[in-house]
Amino acid sequence: MMWHVADRPRVLTSAEATAVVGTAVGVRVPNLTDAAVIRDTDTGAPVLAYLPLQRNHVALLRRHVVGYECAAVTRNANYSTKSTTFGYSPRAAINRREGCQASAFARDERDRQNVLDATAVTLRAMLALVDPDIVDRDRATLSTIDQDWFLGDSELWTSGVINQSSVLPYHRDRFNFPTWSAMPVLRRGMNGGFLHVPEYDLTVACRDGWAVFFPGHDLVHGVTPMRPRVPDAYRYSIVYYALRGMKDCHTAAEETAYARRRRTEREVAMAAKLKESP
Amino acid sequence: MTEHVTVVRTESVPIDSISPHPANPRRGDMARIERSLREHGQYAPLIVHEPTGHILAGNHRWRAAKDKLGWSHVDVQFVTCTETKALEILAMDNRSSDDGRYDDTELLALLEQITDSGNLDAAGYDVDDLDDLLARLEEQDPTDDTLTEALGIDARKAADTYNNSGVRSIVLTYPEDEYEQIVLGLQHMCARYEVPDFSAAVAAMIPELED
Q1: Does the CB of B140 have a partner CB in chain A at under 8 Å?
Q2: Residue B39: pLDDT band with limits 50, 70, 90
Q3: What does the pLDDT average to over A25-32?
Q4: What is the DSSP string of B23-35?
Protein backbone atom coordinates (compact mmCIF):
# COMPACT_ATOMS: atom_id res chain seq x y z
CA MET A 1 0.00 0.00 0.00
CA MET A 2 1.41 3.39 -1.03
CA TRP A 3 0.39 6.76 0.34
CA HIS A 4 1.76 10.25 0.62
CA VAL A 5 2.01 12.46 3.68
CA ALA A 6 0.68 15.99 3.33
CA ASP A 7 0.62 18.87 5.79
CA ARG A 8 -2.50 20.96 5.93
CA PRO A 9 -3.22 24.09 7.95
CA ARG A 10 -6.13 24.32 10.32
CA VAL A 11 -8.61 26.80 8.82
CA LEU A 12 -11.21 26.78 11.61
CA THR A 13 -10.73 26.49 15.33
CA SER A 14 -12.57 23.76 17.11
CA ALA A 15 -14.98 26.38 18.52
CA GLU A 16 -15.57 27.84 15.05
CA ALA A 17 -16.30 24.38 13.72
CA THR A 18 -18.82 23.84 16.50
CA ALA A 19 -20.84 26.69 15.01
CA VAL A 20 -21.61 24.62 11.89
CA VAL A 21 -22.73 21.54 13.82
CA GLY A 22 -26.26 20.61 12.80
CA THR A 23 -26.12 22.42 9.47
CA ALA A 24 -26.23 20.66 6.13
CA VAL A 25 -23.05 20.18 4.14
CA GLY A 26 -23.07 21.92 0.78
CA VAL A 27 -22.05 20.52 -2.56
CA ARG A 28 -18.26 20.27 -2.66
CA VAL A 29 -15.56 18.93 -4.95
CA PRO A 30 -13.18 16.43 -3.31
CA ASN A 31 -9.68 17.73 -2.59
CA LEU A 32 -8.43 14.44 -1.18
CA THR A 33 -8.58 11.76 -3.83
CA ASP A 34 -5.34 9.83 -3.39
CA ALA A 35 -4.02 7.63 -0.61
CA ALA A 36 -2.68 10.01 2.00
CA VAL A 37 -2.00 10.76 5.62
CA ILE A 38 -2.86 14.37 6.44
CA ARG A 39 -0.99 16.12 9.25
CA ASP A 40 -1.64 19.44 10.93
CA THR A 41 0.86 21.94 9.51
CA ASP A 42 1.58 23.55 12.87
CA THR A 43 1.63 20.55 15.19
CA GLY A 44 2.64 17.79 12.78
CA ALA A 45 -0.03 15.63 14.38
CA PRO A 46 -1.94 13.31 12.04
CA VAL A 47 -5.55 14.39 11.52
CA LEU A 48 -6.86 12.00 8.88
CA ALA A 49 -5.82 9.09 6.69
CA TYR A 50 -7.41 7.94 3.44
CA LEU A 51 -6.47 4.52 2.13
CA PRO A 52 -7.76 1.76 -0.19
CA LEU A 53 -8.63 -1.66 1.17
CA GLN A 54 -7.36 -4.79 -0.51
CA ARG A 55 -9.65 -5.51 -3.42
CA ASN A 56 -10.58 -9.05 -2.37
CA HIS A 57 -11.63 -7.70 0.99
CA VAL A 58 -13.78 -5.06 -0.71
CA ALA A 59 -15.49 -7.80 -2.72
CA LEU A 60 -16.23 -9.74 0.42
CA LEU A 61 -17.49 -6.68 2.27
CA ARG A 62 -19.70 -5.73 -0.67
CA ARG A 63 -21.22 -9.19 -0.72
CA HIS A 64 -22.17 -8.91 2.94
CA VAL A 65 -23.24 -5.27 3.16
CA VAL A 66 -24.71 -4.17 -0.15
CA GLY A 67 -28.31 -5.30 -0.36
CA TYR A 68 -28.79 -5.20 3.40
CA GLU A 69 -31.76 -2.91 3.89
CA CYS A 70 -31.12 -0.58 6.81
CA ALA A 71 -34.03 0.75 8.85
CA ALA A 72 -35.02 4.41 8.64
CA VAL A 73 -33.90 6.21 11.78
CA THR A 74 -35.15 9.69 12.64
CA ARG A 75 -32.17 11.65 13.96
CA ASN A 76 -33.99 14.88 14.71
CA ALA A 77 -36.77 17.03 13.34
CA ASN A 78 -34.72 17.96 10.32
CA TYR A 79 -33.49 14.68 8.94
CA SER A 80 -33.61 10.92 9.08
CA THR A 81 -31.18 8.33 7.84
CA LYS A 82 -31.23 4.69 6.90
CA SER A 83 -28.79 3.01 9.21
CA THR A 84 -28.14 -0.07 11.31
CA THR A 85 -25.79 -0.40 14.26
CA PHE A 86 -23.61 -3.47 14.56
CA GLY A 87 -21.17 -4.95 17.07
CA TYR A 88 -21.88 -4.30 20.72
CA SER A 89 -24.28 -2.05 22.60
CA PRO A 90 -23.91 -0.62 26.11
CA ARG A 91 -26.53 -0.80 28.80
CA ALA A 92 -29.62 1.28 28.10
CA ALA A 93 -32.45 0.42 30.44
CA ILE A 94 -34.75 2.75 28.57
CA ASN A 95 -34.43 0.38 25.60
CA ARG A 96 -34.91 -2.72 27.82
CA ARG A 97 -31.17 -3.32 27.52
CA GLU A 98 -30.28 -4.09 31.11
CA GLY A 99 -26.73 -5.15 30.30
CA CYS A 100 -24.09 -4.67 27.66
CA GLN A 101 -24.79 -7.07 24.83
CA ALA A 102 -24.42 -7.86 21.18
CA SER A 103 -26.50 -5.66 18.90
CA ALA A 104 -29.54 -7.11 17.18
CA PHE A 105 -27.56 -7.06 13.92
CA ALA A 106 -24.76 -9.11 15.48
CA ARG A 107 -27.25 -11.62 16.85
CA ASP A 108 -29.36 -11.94 13.74
CA GLU A 109 -26.86 -11.39 10.92
CA ARG A 110 -23.94 -13.56 12.00
CA ASP A 111 -22.32 -13.91 8.58
CA ARG A 112 -22.43 -10.21 7.95
CA GLN A 113 -21.17 -9.41 11.44
CA ASN A 114 -18.38 -11.92 10.98
CA VAL A 115 -17.14 -10.11 7.89
CA LEU A 116 -17.46 -6.75 9.65
CA ASP A 117 -15.34 -8.13 12.51
CA ALA A 118 -12.70 -9.32 10.07
CA THR A 119 -12.78 -5.92 8.42
CA ALA A 120 -12.14 -4.29 11.80
CA VAL A 121 -8.95 -6.30 12.11
CA THR A 122 -7.91 -5.29 8.59
CA LEU A 123 -8.64 -1.63 9.30
CA ARG A 124 -6.60 -1.75 12.47
CA ALA A 125 -3.67 -3.19 10.51
CA MET A 126 -3.98 -0.38 7.95
CA LEU A 127 -4.01 2.27 10.65
CA ALA A 128 -1.04 0.67 12.37
CA LEU A 129 0.84 0.73 9.11
CA VAL A 130 0.45 4.48 8.59
CA ASP A 131 0.91 5.46 12.24
CA PRO A 132 1.45 2.83 14.95
CA ASP A 133 1.40 5.57 17.59
CA ILE A 134 -2.30 6.20 16.94
CA VAL A 135 -3.08 2.55 17.55
CA ASP A 136 -0.96 2.42 20.69
CA ARG A 137 -2.47 5.61 22.05
CA ASP A 138 -6.04 4.54 21.30
CA ARG A 139 -5.48 1.12 22.83
CA ALA A 140 -4.26 2.82 25.99
CA THR A 141 -7.35 5.08 25.98
CA LEU A 142 -9.58 2.03 25.60
CA SER A 143 -7.79 -0.10 28.17
CA THR A 144 -10.78 0.10 30.51
CA ILE A 145 -12.93 -1.85 28.04
CA ASP A 146 -13.05 -5.60 28.55
CA GLN A 147 -11.69 -7.64 25.62
CA ASP A 148 -15.12 -9.27 25.21
CA TRP A 149 -16.45 -6.06 23.71
CA PHE A 150 -14.11 -5.40 20.82
CA LEU A 151 -15.00 -6.23 17.24
CA GLY A 152 -12.91 -9.23 16.24
CA ASP A 153 -9.43 -8.81 17.61
CA SER A 154 -9.33 -5.16 16.64
CA GLU A 155 -8.88 -3.79 20.18
CA LEU A 156 -9.90 -0.41 18.75
CA TRP A 157 -13.59 -0.54 17.97
CA THR A 158 -16.55 -1.88 19.92
CA SER A 159 -19.35 -0.98 17.59
CA GLY A 160 -20.30 0.54 14.30
CA VAL A 161 -23.03 1.77 12.06
CA ILE A 162 -23.90 1.05 8.46
CA ASN A 163 -25.28 4.18 6.82
CA GLN A 164 -27.20 3.51 3.63
CA SER A 165 -26.96 6.42 1.21
CA SER A 166 -27.31 8.79 4.16
CA VAL A 167 -26.46 12.45 3.98
CA LEU A 168 -25.34 13.54 7.44
CA PRO A 169 -25.13 17.17 8.57
CA TYR A 170 -22.04 18.42 10.37
CA HIS A 171 -21.58 16.66 13.70
CA ARG A 172 -19.10 15.22 16.15
CA ASP A 173 -19.39 11.63 17.33
CA ARG A 174 -20.03 12.73 20.89
CA PHE A 175 -20.93 9.27 22.25
CA ASN A 176 -17.56 7.86 21.27
CA PHE A 177 -14.24 7.66 23.00
CA PRO A 178 -11.80 10.33 21.77
CA THR A 179 -10.12 7.77 19.52
CA TRP A 180 -9.86 7.30 15.77
CA SER A 181 -12.79 5.93 13.82
CA ALA A 182 -12.53 4.07 10.55
CA MET A 183 -15.00 4.41 7.71
CA PRO A 184 -14.79 2.20 4.65
CA VAL A 185 -17.23 3.10 1.88
CA LEU A 186 -18.95 0.96 -0.75
CA ARG A 187 -20.61 2.80 -3.58
CA ARG A 188 -21.73 2.55 -7.17
CA GLY A 189 -23.41 5.00 -9.48
CA MET A 190 -23.64 7.74 -6.87
CA ASN A 191 -22.36 11.28 -7.20
CA GLY A 192 -21.44 13.21 -4.06
CA GLY A 193 -21.44 11.58 -0.65
CA PHE A 194 -18.02 13.00 0.17
CA LEU A 195 -16.81 13.47 3.73
CA HIS A 196 -16.11 17.10 4.59
CA VAL A 197 -13.96 18.06 7.58
CA PRO A 198 -14.33 21.85 7.86
CA GLU A 199 -11.53 22.41 10.39
CA TYR A 200 -9.01 21.49 7.68
CA ASP A 201 -11.32 22.08 4.70
CA LEU A 202 -10.77 18.52 3.63
CA THR A 203 -13.28 16.96 1.27
CA VAL A 204 -12.53 13.27 1.03
CA ALA A 205 -13.65 11.50 -2.13
CA CYS A 206 -14.76 8.33 -0.26
CA ARG A 207 -14.18 6.12 -3.27
CA ASP A 208 -15.60 2.65 -3.46
CA GLY A 209 -13.47 0.32 -1.34
CA TRP A 210 -11.51 3.10 0.33
CA ALA A 211 -11.49 3.92 4.05
CA VAL A 212 -11.19 7.19 5.93
CA PHE A 213 -9.56 7.16 9.37
CA PHE A 214 -10.00 10.16 11.65
CA PRO A 215 -10.91 11.17 15.21
CA GLY A 216 -14.64 11.64 14.71
CA HIS A 217 -15.15 12.53 18.35
CA ASP A 218 -12.94 15.61 18.01
CA LEU A 219 -13.29 16.72 14.39
CA VAL A 220 -16.57 18.06 13.09
CA HIS A 221 -17.53 16.23 9.92
CA GLY A 222 -20.47 15.75 7.57
CA VAL A 223 -21.46 14.23 4.26
CA THR A 224 -22.10 16.17 1.06
CA PRO A 225 -25.37 15.70 -0.87
CA MET A 226 -25.70 12.66 -3.11
CA ARG A 227 -27.23 12.29 -6.53
CA PRO A 228 -27.68 8.89 -8.16
CA ARG A 229 -26.41 8.46 -11.71
CA VAL A 230 -28.27 5.17 -12.13
CA PRO A 231 -31.55 3.90 -10.62
CA ASP A 232 -29.88 1.26 -8.44
CA ALA A 233 -27.11 3.54 -7.15
CA TYR A 234 -25.94 3.08 -3.58
CA ARG A 235 -23.45 4.39 -1.07
CA TYR A 236 -22.86 2.50 2.16
CA SER A 237 -20.51 3.94 4.75
CA ILE A 238 -19.51 1.52 7.47
CA VAL A 239 -18.29 3.46 10.48
CA TYR A 240 -16.25 1.73 13.18
CA TYR A 241 -15.96 3.42 16.58
CA ALA A 242 -15.51 2.83 20.31
CA LEU A 243 -18.60 3.70 22.34
CA ARG A 244 -17.93 5.42 25.65
CA GLY A 245 -20.75 3.45 27.26
CA MET A 246 -18.77 0.26 26.82
CA LYS A 247 -16.24 1.28 29.48
CA ASP A 248 -18.67 0.23 32.21
CA CYS A 249 -19.25 -3.23 30.80
CA HIS A 250 -18.00 -6.26 32.67
CA THR A 251 -17.34 -9.51 30.87
CA ALA A 252 -20.12 -10.75 28.61
CA ALA A 253 -21.08 -13.50 31.08
CA GLU A 254 -21.19 -11.03 33.97
CA GLU A 255 -23.25 -8.60 31.92
CA THR A 256 -25.82 -11.27 31.11
CA ALA A 257 -26.09 -12.24 34.76
CA TYR A 258 -26.31 -8.57 35.74
CA ALA A 259 -29.04 -7.91 33.15
CA ARG A 260 -31.08 -10.83 34.43
CA ARG A 261 -30.81 -9.67 38.03
CA ARG A 262 -31.73 -6.10 37.12
CA ARG A 263 -34.70 -7.27 35.13
CA THR A 264 -35.87 -9.41 38.04
CA GLU A 265 -35.49 -6.49 40.45
CA ARG A 266 -37.53 -4.29 38.14
CA GLU A 267 -40.35 -6.85 37.87
CA VAL A 268 -40.41 -7.35 41.64
CA ALA A 269 -40.46 -3.60 42.22
CA MET A 270 -43.25 -3.15 39.68
CA ALA A 271 -45.34 -5.93 41.23
CA ALA A 272 -44.89 -4.36 44.68
CA LYS A 273 -45.87 -0.97 43.33
CA LEU A 274 -49.02 -2.39 41.75
CA LYS A 275 -49.91 -4.17 44.98
CA GLU A 276 -49.64 -0.92 46.92
CA SER A 277 -51.64 1.11 44.47
CA PRO A 278 -55.36 1.47 45.24
CA MET B 1 -27.52 -4.81 -56.93
CA THR B 2 -26.52 -2.82 -53.87
CA GLU B 3 -25.07 0.56 -54.65
CA HIS B 4 -21.90 1.33 -52.67
CA VAL B 5 -20.44 4.74 -52.02
CA THR B 6 -17.22 5.71 -53.71
CA VAL B 7 -14.35 7.23 -51.78
CA VAL B 8 -13.08 10.12 -53.84
CA ARG B 9 -10.13 11.46 -51.84
CA THR B 10 -8.93 12.33 -48.33
CA GLU B 11 -7.50 15.73 -47.60
CA SER B 12 -7.29 18.59 -45.14
CA VAL B 13 -9.82 21.28 -46.02
CA PRO B 14 -10.81 24.70 -44.63
CA ILE B 15 -13.36 24.00 -41.90
CA ASP B 16 -15.95 26.37 -43.39
CA SER B 17 -15.78 24.67 -46.78
CA ILE B 18 -18.01 21.86 -45.48
CA SER B 19 -21.16 21.98 -43.39
CA PRO B 20 -23.16 19.85 -40.95
CA HIS B 21 -25.87 17.74 -42.53
CA PRO B 22 -29.20 19.60 -42.08
CA ALA B 23 -31.05 16.32 -41.52
CA ASN B 24 -28.74 14.95 -38.81
CA PRO B 25 -30.96 13.96 -35.87
CA ARG B 26 -28.14 13.01 -33.47
CA ARG B 27 -27.39 15.14 -30.40
CA GLY B 28 -23.90 14.17 -29.37
CA ASP B 29 -21.92 14.50 -26.16
CA MET B 30 -20.15 17.71 -27.14
CA ALA B 31 -18.06 17.97 -23.99
CA ARG B 32 -16.61 14.49 -24.43
CA ILE B 33 -16.01 15.00 -28.15
CA GLU B 34 -14.27 18.30 -27.47
CA ARG B 35 -12.09 16.61 -24.84
CA SER B 36 -11.20 13.85 -27.26
CA LEU B 37 -10.14 16.34 -29.96
CA ARG B 38 -8.23 18.38 -27.41
CA GLU B 39 -6.42 15.34 -26.04
CA HIS B 40 -5.76 13.39 -29.22
CA GLY B 41 -6.37 15.67 -32.18
CA GLN B 42 -8.30 14.36 -35.16
CA TYR B 43 -7.35 10.72 -35.60
CA ALA B 44 -10.07 9.88 -38.14
CA PRO B 45 -11.36 11.99 -41.03
CA LEU B 46 -14.90 13.31 -41.26
CA ILE B 47 -16.98 11.67 -43.97
CA VAL B 48 -18.38 14.29 -46.34
CA HIS B 49 -20.78 13.91 -49.25
CA GLU B 50 -18.80 15.58 -52.05
CA PRO B 51 -21.75 16.72 -54.22
CA THR B 52 -23.33 18.72 -51.34
CA GLY B 53 -20.46 19.29 -48.88
CA HIS B 54 -22.65 17.90 -46.08
CA ILE B 55 -21.07 15.87 -43.32
CA LEU B 56 -22.36 12.29 -43.15
CA ALA B 57 -20.23 11.18 -40.21
CA GLY B 58 -18.53 13.52 -37.73
CA ASN B 59 -21.02 16.37 -37.44
CA HIS B 60 -20.25 16.93 -33.75
CA ARG B 61 -16.51 16.66 -34.23
CA TRP B 62 -16.81 19.40 -36.85
CA ARG B 63 -18.89 21.54 -34.46
CA ALA B 64 -16.43 21.08 -31.59
CA ALA B 65 -13.42 21.73 -33.80
CA LYS B 66 -14.97 24.92 -35.17
CA ASP B 67 -16.79 26.38 -32.16
CA LYS B 68 -14.83 25.09 -29.19
CA LEU B 69 -11.30 24.65 -30.49
CA GLY B 70 -11.17 27.23 -33.28
CA TRP B 71 -9.55 24.92 -35.79
CA SER B 72 -9.16 26.32 -39.32
CA HIS B 73 -8.84 22.96 -41.12
CA VAL B 74 -10.11 19.43 -40.68
CA ASP B 75 -9.27 16.15 -42.36
CA VAL B 76 -12.03 14.95 -44.62
CA GLN B 77 -12.73 11.84 -46.65
CA PHE B 78 -14.98 12.82 -49.54
CA VAL B 79 -17.41 10.26 -50.88
CA THR B 80 -19.91 10.27 -53.70
CA CYS B 81 -23.29 8.61 -53.77
CA THR B 82 -26.93 9.47 -54.42
CA GLU B 83 -28.85 11.78 -52.08
CA THR B 84 -30.89 8.80 -50.88
CA LYS B 85 -27.78 6.78 -50.10
CA ALA B 86 -26.30 9.77 -48.28
CA LEU B 87 -29.34 9.90 -45.98
CA GLU B 88 -29.07 6.16 -45.34
CA ILE B 89 -25.44 6.53 -44.35
CA LEU B 90 -26.25 9.47 -42.09
CA ALA B 91 -28.85 7.41 -40.24
CA MET B 92 -26.88 4.16 -40.19
CA ASP B 93 -23.68 5.76 -38.92
CA ASN B 94 -25.57 6.87 -35.82
CA ARG B 95 -27.69 3.76 -35.48
CA SER B 96 -24.83 1.29 -35.76
CA SER B 97 -23.35 2.40 -32.45
CA ASP B 98 -26.63 2.62 -30.54
CA ASP B 99 -26.99 -1.01 -29.51
CA GLY B 100 -23.37 -1.69 -28.80
CA ARG B 101 -22.44 -3.35 -25.50
CA TYR B 102 -19.27 -3.71 -23.50
CA ASP B 103 -17.63 -6.76 -22.09
CA ASP B 104 -17.14 -5.28 -18.62
CA THR B 105 -14.20 -7.50 -17.74
CA GLU B 106 -12.34 -6.50 -20.89
CA LEU B 107 -13.28 -2.85 -20.43
CA LEU B 108 -11.95 -2.95 -16.86
CA ALA B 109 -8.70 -4.53 -18.06
CA LEU B 110 -8.35 -1.80 -20.70
CA LEU B 111 -9.04 1.02 -18.26
CA GLU B 112 -6.66 -0.40 -15.66
CA GLN B 113 -3.99 -0.62 -18.32
CA ILE B 114 -4.63 3.02 -19.23
CA THR B 115 -4.61 4.06 -15.57
CA ASP B 116 -1.26 2.37 -15.02
CA SER B 117 0.40 3.90 -18.02
CA GLY B 118 -1.53 6.99 -18.97
CA ASN B 119 -4.38 9.33 -18.35
CA LEU B 120 -7.83 7.90 -17.69
CA ASP B 121 -9.41 11.27 -18.40
CA ALA B 122 -7.97 11.27 -21.91
CA ALA B 123 -9.79 8.01 -22.52
CA GLY B 124 -13.11 9.67 -21.71
CA TYR B 125 -13.46 7.97 -18.32
CA ASP B 126 -12.89 9.00 -14.73
CA VAL B 127 -12.24 7.14 -11.48
CA ASP B 128 -15.98 7.03 -10.73
CA ASP B 129 -16.50 5.09 -13.97
CA LEU B 130 -13.66 2.75 -13.04
CA ASP B 131 -14.99 2.24 -9.49
CA ASP B 132 -18.53 1.65 -10.75
CA LEU B 133 -17.30 -0.91 -13.24
CA LEU B 134 -15.33 -2.76 -10.60
CA ALA B 135 -18.26 -2.64 -8.16
CA ARG B 136 -20.64 -3.99 -10.79
CA LEU B 137 -18.31 -6.85 -11.62
CA GLU B 138 -17.96 -7.70 -7.93
CA GLU B 139 -21.74 -7.68 -7.54
CA GLN B 140 -22.08 -10.09 -10.46
CA ASP B 141 -19.38 -12.40 -9.17
CA PRO B 142 -20.85 -15.52 -7.55
CA THR B 143 -20.09 -16.05 -3.88
CA ASP B 144 -16.54 -17.20 -3.49
CA ASP B 145 -16.02 -19.02 -0.20
CA THR B 146 -12.29 -19.06 -0.73
CA LEU B 147 -12.32 -15.33 -0.08
CA THR B 148 -13.14 -15.79 3.58
CA GLU B 149 -10.43 -18.43 3.77
CA ALA B 150 -7.91 -16.20 2.00
CA LEU B 151 -8.62 -13.40 4.42
CA GLY B 152 -8.25 -15.69 7.40
CA ILE B 153 -11.84 -15.30 8.53
CA ASP B 154 -13.10 -18.01 10.83
CA ALA B 155 -16.91 -18.06 10.77
CA ARG B 156 -17.09 -20.16 13.93
CA LYS B 157 -15.31 -17.47 15.89
CA ALA B 158 -18.07 -14.93 15.40
CA ALA B 159 -20.67 -17.56 16.21
CA ASP B 160 -18.93 -18.32 19.50
CA THR B 161 -18.43 -14.66 20.28
CA TYR B 162 -21.99 -13.62 19.68
CA ASN B 163 -23.49 -16.72 21.29
CA ASN B 164 -21.69 -15.57 24.41
CA SER B 165 -22.87 -11.96 24.32
CA GLY B 166 -26.04 -12.17 22.27
CA VAL B 167 -28.90 -11.93 24.73
CA ARG B 168 -32.47 -12.65 23.73
CA SER B 169 -35.58 -11.90 25.75
CA ILE B 170 -39.01 -13.50 25.95
CA VAL B 171 -41.71 -11.01 26.82
CA LEU B 172 -44.81 -12.51 28.47
CA THR B 173 -48.00 -10.49 28.80
CA TYR B 174 -50.48 -10.65 31.70
CA PRO B 175 -53.27 -8.54 33.18
CA GLU B 176 -52.11 -6.73 36.32
CA ASP B 177 -53.61 -9.12 38.90
CA GLU B 178 -52.12 -12.12 37.20
CA TYR B 179 -48.82 -10.31 36.72
CA GLU B 180 -48.47 -9.83 40.47
CA GLN B 181 -49.14 -13.54 41.02
CA ILE B 182 -46.63 -14.56 38.38
CA VAL B 183 -43.94 -12.32 39.89
CA LEU B 184 -44.66 -13.75 43.31
CA GLY B 185 -44.51 -17.27 41.93
CA LEU B 186 -41.22 -16.59 40.21
CA GLN B 187 -39.81 -15.20 43.47
CA HIS B 188 -40.75 -18.50 45.12
CA MET B 189 -39.04 -20.37 42.31
CA CYS B 190 -35.88 -18.32 42.81
CA ALA B 191 -35.89 -19.31 46.48
CA ARG B 192 -36.65 -22.93 45.71
CA TYR B 193 -33.90 -23.33 43.13
CA GLU B 194 -31.56 -20.96 44.93
CA VAL B 195 -31.01 -18.84 41.82
CA PRO B 196 -30.69 -15.05 41.69
CA ASP B 197 -33.12 -14.14 38.91
CA PHE B 198 -36.32 -15.11 37.14
CA SER B 199 -34.53 -16.19 33.95
CA ALA B 200 -32.51 -18.71 35.95
CA ALA B 201 -35.62 -19.83 37.85
CA VAL B 202 -37.50 -20.62 34.63
CA ALA B 203 -34.44 -22.35 33.21
CA ALA B 204 -34.23 -24.50 36.33
CA MET B 205 -37.94 -25.26 36.39
CA ILE B 206 -38.38 -26.43 32.79
CA PRO B 207 -36.24 -29.61 32.98
CA GLU B 208 -38.20 -30.58 36.10
CA LEU B 209 -41.48 -30.18 34.22
CA GLU B 210 -40.16 -32.28 31.37
CA ASP B 211 -39.40 -35.10 33.81
Answers
A1: no
A2: very high
A3: 96
A4: T------HHHHHH
